[in-house]
Amino acid sequence: MKKGILIFSLLIAAAATVLICYMLVQEVSHKKSRPDIPDLENNRIVRMFNAQIDRQIQNHTQNVMYPGYIPESRQNTILYLQAIQSIESYTRYGVGSTHPRNYLELRITFHDHTVANHVYTGHSCSGYTSGCLLMKAEMKNGQATRIFTNGQEKKGSPEWIIPSLDLIHMT
User: Fold this and answer.
1) 161 secondary structure, DSSP code
2) If you ran DSSP here, which 8-state letter would residue 112 be given?
3) Which of 81, 111, 118, 147 counts the highest number of beta carbons within 10 A?
4) pLDDT for 54-65, tens place per residue?
5) Residues 81, 62: Cα–Cα separation, whole Å
6) Phi then psi for 42, rounded to 5 degrees?
7) Residue pLDDT, tens place only, 10-53
8) Do 135 and 168 form a contact (C-beta atoms < 8 A)?
9) Residue 50: CB partners within 8 Å, gap ≥ 6?
């Protein structure tokens, strides 16, 4: 009788261990779906993106609302933007994930081929709400030349994407 209880207990423990391992593997390994890849070119966003870059440079380097910047800050910001080749946003676990810490992150590639991965934006993306807008902006001389998206911008008005544009280029 004790031997049967021991075997039954070991089987239950083994099944629980397998179930926990399966859940952990499912959470960590996810497959990218169609909305996770910004590969649809959208030329209309380029003008909006560049306007937001100009507005943010003005606001953060020559505005009384942001005091304390050194006089060279405007030129340093422009030089930094000119060094960027591309900026791509992505989520940790995919656009459709319901994981609680599915943050939007950036991958910034510079003209000297160095890459800054996992740049934290503080913006969360949840599969419970409408999908996040993912973008890849190809840059030249501090301005966007081409922008690719995952198509989420077509689900709302053009003004809806302005916060996403701010997240991408001023992080």
Assistant:
1) G
2) T
3) 147
4) 888 887 777 677
5) 17
6) -135, 100
7) 767 666 676 675 665 555 445 556 677 888 888 888 998 899 88
8) yes
9) 143, 144
